[in-house]
C-alpha cells in the first residue's frame, strides 16, 4: 500500500505502513515515521550539516540490515547531498555522495526507508559542502559485563569533572543500547579532539580501577571502556534521539546530570520512542 503525503511542501510516498519493524513491541513502520516526525523539532538541530550514515532494516530489527553512506540513485533531488573524499574506504571509493538531513521531509524520507538508526560525525560541512573542523568531542562509554550503564554513569561523572577542570562543558546521553556517550562542545581553534580525548581517557585509566582506555576485550570485564577513538573524522556516533535496533524501540536519549548521578539500576535509563516524546514535551531538549 502506498500513501502519498505532503511534508512541508515536499511530496513523498509512504509505503508498507503496517509492517511491524519491532516485533516484540508490535511497533510498526507507521509508528517509526510518526516518532521521527514528532521528535524532529529537537532532533534536527543535531543533524543539520552533518553527513549521514544510516542503518536500514527493511524487514525489521530481526532481519538483515545494512549500513548506507552513499545516497542511493532514487534519492529525491531536494535532499541535500555533498560529495566528500573518503580515503581508505573499505569499498575502494575515492568519494561518497552523502545525504544530509537538514529538514523534516528528509527525515521522513529516511524513516520511510526503514532507516531506524541515524549516525553522524562530530563535524559539519559548510554551505558550500566543504568539511569543517570538529565542533564536538565525544566519549563513548562501553561497559564490560558485569558492569552496566550504572558504572558508565560513575565514569561519566569522572569525565565531567575532569573536563570541567580543563574548562569544558559536557552533556550525557544514553546510547540506546547498553552504554552512553558524553558530548563536549569544541570551540574553533582548540587542539585536536582525538589527541585530547585519548590523553584524558588514559589519565582516568591510570587513576581509577573502574576505567580502561584500551579496546582489548580481555581487559574490559567489570570495567567501563572510554572509547576516545570515536573522534576520528572517519567515524560516526548514533545521533541524539535516534531509534536503535533492539527488541523494543529504544532511543539514544539526552540525560540530565541529576539522572546520571542518581542512576542505581540500568532500567532507570531505558527510554523508548513514546517515552522520549513524552519526556521532551515535559523537559524539552537537554542536549546543546
TrEMBL record:
The lineage of its organism: Bacteria, Bacillati, Actinomycetota, Actinomycetes, Streptosporangiales. It comes from the Bacteria. Residues 28-287 form the DNA ligase D polymerase domain. It comes from Acrocarpospora pleiomorpha. Pfam families: LigD_Prim-Pol. This is DNA ligase D polymerase domain-containing protein.
